[in-house]
Amino acid sequence: MRGPCRLPDPIRAGHRTHRYTKKSFLPAFLLSRIPAVSLRIPPLNPLRVFEVVARLQNLTLAAQELHVSQSAVSRQLATLESYLGVELFRREHRGVTLTRAGAAYAKRVAPAFAEIAAATDGLLQNMSHKVLRVRTYTTFTAKWLIPRLEDFHARHPNIEVIVSNGVSEVDFDRDAADVAIQFGLGGWPRVKEDVLFTDEIEPVCSPEYLDKNMSRHGKLEDLLKGRLLVSKYRKTDWTDWLEANGLSAAAANSERMGFSTSILTWQAALDGLGIAIGQSALLQTEFNKGLLVRPFRRPLQRSMSYYLLRPQEQRFSRRVAVFRDWLLETAAREREALANGPKEPPSLG
Predict the structure, then answer these.
(1) 180 phi, psi to nearest 5 deg
(2) Which 3 state secondary structure label does DSSP give 2?
(3) Distance between the two ends of the chain, CA-based, in angstroms?
(4) Which pLDDT tens digit goes with each residue over 234-244?
(5) Are residues 235 and 117 in the same domain?
(6) 3-state secondary structure of 120
(7) What is the pLDDT of residues 79-115, one digit of tens each?
(8) Domain of 269: which CATH number?
(9) Which domain does 291 fall in, by range?
(10) Whole-prediction pTM
(11) Residue-wise DSSP of 226-276
């Protein structure tokens, strides 16, 4: 039987080679695709650095993606060029650019790394077939998703839900997520989307705050002369609601208190610090328990909504399908409950 093939001595000197024989432990279908000679593969770490720099055309950005220093990136590129004996980049005052040889090499190398990434993702998904990764906002997680997850778990006890939080728009190629719940106008590229509920806002406060700050004549407008609680990420909510209801003048001289998130703003309202703008869909629990009230009962429908997103090219996944069905069913039920709530506002006079 023929022994293993070896690379020429100059290549073997100083570099580890990969040799395969017919006695290899690899399956036959893989052996049939392996050349009869050892694969001539450069050191993989410098090759990975080359792929990133070639893609980004920027040493600083490449260093950030790889979580190393810029000098480390330069050293890895030098190692690869030394191994190949070919100049891959031109060093210029403003950075680096690919040489003709470098561009041709990058064109062949990049798909190989993409294939490795796809194979790795597929392997990890198969290994974690009972795990569902959900990405959404902290406020949505705390005020809507967590209080309802026990119901999902009771129906599907074999599916483990892992929730991660982020403010930026989801990128399924980058983020470790099977689905995402995202706020916006819809129409994002390369995703399938389902509307959960629209953005409906109105003033909310604690019952104690309402009793304490209502005038003896029962004028709701007097509430707007007190302290208005404002969320950093939803600064225009008060302005939009006041203008829509013709009440801007009533709140012209009111005190404002700001918070970094909506969840903190609503907590301040729960603790009686003032009156906040609430998102009706996210505060159902507080309304049902009587912890927060809607004194004006004049909700404003915004143009944006909460959406369930999943990748356009996602293969069928039972765990994604059952989560989607549960989420849409739950959201529809709660939309109906909100629609059937009190509609007639108390008198503002």
Answers:
(1) -140, 150
(2) coil
(3) 100
(4) 999 999 999 99
(5) no
(6) helix
(7) 999 999 999 999 988 789 999 999 999 999 999 999 9
(8) 3.40.190.10
(9) 199-303
(10) 0.61
(11) SEEEEEGGGTTHHHHHHHHTT-TGGGTT-EEEEESSHHHHHHHHHTTS-EE
